[in-house]
Input
Amino acid sequence: MHITHLSLAGARSFRRLELPLTPGLHVVTGQNGSGKSNLLEGIALLATTRSLRIANDLELIAWDALRDDPLPAARYAARVHTAVDDNITIEVIVSARPATPGIEANAASRRFRVNGVARRASDLIGRLRVVLFSADDLGIIDGAPTARRRYLDITLSQLDPAYVRALQRYQRVLQQRNSLLRRLQERRGQPGELDFWDEELAQTGAMLITSRAHAIATLNTDAAQRYAALSTGSAPLEVCYRPALPPPLIETVASSTTSLAPKLLEALVVGRTRDIQAGTTRIGPHRDDVAFLIGGHPAGSTASRGELRGIALALRLAEVAFSTARTGDPPVLLLDDVLSELDAGRRARVLAAAFEVDQVIITSPDPDRPAPAELSAASRYRIDAGVLEPIG
Output
């Protein structure tokens, strides 16, 4: 899999970018704030339909477009070559909603196209698959559980359209169930009204749980081996799935969706009284977590920064292999300002992974790292204030 052409218009620091790309290695250098991260985040947006760092879609639009254009919008587009499709065009258009007179726009909407045809977000996810290394990866290890759930959802959504549909359905059903629980808490309604929502939540929740369990089992094995190679002499790494389920159900998470769903339904029914008292759903994949253990101890609270970085690198390298094994087509690899912070041994490990995929885009503030001698075949570019120019 590789991108053959990237087009950004009105997209953050890019008023206009038309970038033809070939398979292989591409290195983009520039000072901090020049637009390097925006470039890779734009590519990741096309893979996942959402920004990995920005909560407000309005911030995806160039600030001067928001200031000057009557109907500001950003267009992110790419032509992609995959093992299945020789040439497919994917687009995400972010448009500011019309502002109230005297008040600036404060929200935006997203539209999606595949080969020029309007589609849903779920139809676009996975057409381009990426693995993005960035400094923010440490937050997966030592951040809040929401960061780890988000990591799982982004990884699995790119690999399985059924997972995307189940996740979207689960989130809608969870919202409806929680709203009903709050009404029941105020004695407005009958517990039997939960029957439909419990069945829906159990079915979609079971699919998410089994998918996550199988993914973590695979990533654990591979990441542990890669961490041992990256951090010689350190205690072993273990990546453990922590589903938010009653203890009797935890041992069954690796079973099939069809066998787990009725057990999850039973647990939801049994827990109704306490859910009503709390006004929220207390079990299910929306409360899952992933534990990263070094020598059996939580890495987030005991590991050094170097060890945390080693875990994050091992996890991303394992993700590359996992994506390739699941689809038969390597993902596009994006390395955002990470190589300059690595020692020679770890940098060599990451660069070795670069030769296992069809296309790699690397950003760096240092034009000499990675050095031309390390990646002699790489195409090189310089970026400044959102303007990208080839070097040489």
About this structure: Residues 194-230 form the longest helix (37 residues). The mean pLDDT is 90. The chain has two domains: 1-129+329-392, 140-323. The two ends are 26 Å apart (CA to CA).
